[in-house]
Amino acid sequence: MNPEAQLEYLIDGVDTVLPEAELLERLRLGRPLRAKLGVDPTAPDVTLGWAVVFERLRRFQECGHTAVLIIGDFTAQVGDPSGKSETRRRIAADEVGAYVSDVVDTIKELLLPENLEIRHNSEWLGHMDMHAVLDLTSQFTVSRIMDREDFTNRWEAHEPISMIEFMYPLLQAMDSVAVQSDIELGGSDQLFNNLVGRDLQERKGQAGQMVMTVPLLVGTDGVKKMSQSLGNYISVKDTPEEMFGKTMSIPDELMGQWFSLAAYRPAAEVRAILEGLRDGSRHPGETKRELARSIVARYWSEGAAAEAESAFDRLFRQHAAPEDIAEFPLPADDPAWLPGLLNEAGLVASNGEGRRMLKQKAVRVDGNQVTEESLDRGDLVGAVLQVGKRRFIRLVG
Description:
Strand order of the largest sheet: 1-6-5-2-3-4
CATH class of the largest domain: Alpha Beta
CATH architecture of the largest domain: 3-Layer(aba) Sandwich
Number of helices: 18
Helix content: 40-55%
Number of domains: 3
CATH superfamily of the largest domain: HUPs
Largest sheet: 6 strands, mixed
Radius of gyration: 23 Å
Distance between the termini: 59 Å
Strand content: 5-15%
């Protein structure tokens, strides 16, 4: 693929490329570029929203460039303040380590094994002494860091900003210096952080990295960006039925963005889909089914997508429970603690999510809504435990 064709493929659907002319110049050098993506594991799952940037990194691999994946096992303990209106809770090293174990193998499945370099930023950040930290802070002024819009907003609102939050962009910038990246990828909320990396590279005598950002995928609620903490997400590890059903639940107005960012349709094709929805030549319901099939097929298979659609129709058109409900052995504890049971059965991602589902009245036992955290074991033996509209398990014991 020649440099011009590479550029067209790499920037299709992106938010920002800075500076775009420089990207073409470096592609014309004929050497593999080092495309960096840093991720902070602060939750146990990989969502469709997170997968957007991995798809972009994979495109660089497909063009023969090196994907440099930075696992932020150190920066995750600091907490990225991007888009936050308050100081974030710090995460302990052992908690981050557990999240790293949860997500790294999944991320690797989304990328090519060739041209892949995986680094942990604790390699360099975890060994900086005070002299190195002071040297790093001397590279930037407070006014430069305050150029960040969310910091400015919090300052004007008299909201606290901790010194460690000021440090986060500098630490992320050190990653770019350590791996000598040519270009850094990220969501649109990472633009400031990535530009700080370009500045620091130039101050350290390196060629400043280019910056490429992609839009943030709006979650299934249709309001906020997809987030595990908000529960408005689809995991790339969700079952085909879960993936299909959750996609069908999104507001119609999100379909254009989801075709682009979750199904990865080319921009011209997305424009044609939206035009068809506007002029009535496309039916919204059938178009959303096409979207759901496309997403399921991407992470599973065409056959799995067809089966998921059939299961969706049985559940929502025929109001029938799934034909094959998996069985789960009911623990011996009496009474049974439902948040833990939901988690162990794989119906939720954590005990905390189990509590939230109960409070949101999204849990049913044999079709009857329950909100209590504990139930007598005898009431659960042989029962169908359900979370939301698409997650079922039969309890045996």
